[in-house]
Automatic annotation (TrEMBL), chains A, B:
This is TetR/AcrR family transcriptional regulator. Keywords: DNA-binding. It holds the Pfam family TetR_N. Residues 25-85 form the HTH tetR-type domain. PROSITE patterns: HTH_TETR_1, HTH_TETR_2. The keyword Transport does not apply. The keyword DNA-binding applies. One of its GO terms (molecular function) is DNA binding. Residues 48-67 bind DNA.
């Protein structure tokens, strides 16, 4: 799937919300769909609850009653997607790191490939997060609790093992995560937003994973 | 200077604009100052030209007459600051890379330290750029022409020399720039926006520069 496919991303987000909250009533479903489309097209900050209500074909009061503020609505979209990011992502990363065969470079490359596919799947929401995360403390708090905390606990164990085996320079998990995530997000932004076109994901990931693995060797 | 010092950043942006355009008439100066304050506090997307006019104490028509649209106004702030980023930054980077003493790690660390100080100086504008750059093709075009193109031409030469001397794995300049910039921006976001607090810049830069230099060794 190519990043930016709005229809599929809307379906993916709705599926994540329904997996978490159960089947949505038609009006609620319409509001969530309209909110994601408006945020994706106009940006979160420039979208009003009035325009979401108009697009969803409901009264603005319906939004406030069922979802609270615009900020609450954003969190309502993000929470279930974050849950889908963290749980399968952690299970998968644990499997990758638990394998004895495969060097660190190959393990990092596999993690990167999986996260890139995830970002493509939820591209419009990822874009909103990239814009809002640095300036939205509530959103940052939510992701800190539901994603970053879990990732760091996992990486502490996985990296601790690599460090103990002498395959990795001692590096604190939060720094490793920051550097890995920055590189991957920078690549995703370049490829899907700044200069969309033909990118060779496999070669680019090999470059980044190789750099990280060699750079972190003892 | 700590990032986020709005008053000093406004003064720095105004100085950059006046260095490029000559002394500003009081009304124009007031509009630029008000625009930067509004963008920094409310975000670019959520700021209206009406609110800028109100804060500057001018009629909204004055903004349109002198500056065009809100997008034009943003470019008017960014252009001179980008010019200040590129020229002294390139001269300095050329000096750093031309020195024969000092290994690649130390050179990268010095470049990172200088760029971090620049980002701190213009922090509110950098924040606006980080939010707008991925979704604003005009802004991206401007930076592509005025900053990224020049940086890549310079890096082509500097890296070519390091590669020819056998001190660096062959890496295309755009990829090197993307990885370096992603790491540095990721660190700047963590330190000044996501988790402000006590950060040891020297240690963090040493970690990133060491990782890059080791990772890029032949």
């Amino acid at each position: 799937m190519k990043p930016g496919d709005l229809t599929e991303a809307v379906a993916a987000v709705l599926a994540a919300v329904e997996a978490a909250e159960g089947r949505l009533a038609p009006k609620k479903r319409a509001v969530i769909e309209a909110a994601l489309l408006c945020f994706a097209e106009t940006g979160y900050a420039a979208t009003s609850t009035r325009s979401i209500a108009h697009r969803a074909g409901v009264a603005e009061a319906t939004i406030f009653r069922h979802f609270g503020t615009k900020a609450d609505l954003l969190l309502r979209l993000v929470r279930p997607v974050a849950a889908r990011l963290i749980q399968p992502g952690l299970v998968e990363a644990q499997e990758i790191f638990a394998e004895t065969e495969g060097n660190l470079e190959a393990k990092i490359a596999r993690m990167m490939t999986a996260r890139l596919a995830f970002a493509d799947r939820y591209a419009p929401l990822v874009r909103i997060l990239l814009q809002e995360l640095p300036v939205n403390p509530e959103l940052h708090g939510l992701l800190q609790d539901s994603v970053i905390g879990g990732l760091i606990r996992f990486l502490d164990i996985a990296l601790g093992e690599e460090i103990a085996q002498g395959r990795l320079r001692p590096i604190p998990a939060p720094r490793f995560l920051r550097i890995l995530a920055s590189m991957l997000i920078g690549y995703w932004i370049a490829r899907s937003m700044v200069a969309p076109g033909e990118w060779d994901d496999e070669a680019e990931i090999a470059l980044m994973a190789g750099l990280l693995a060699r750079g972190l060797k003892p």
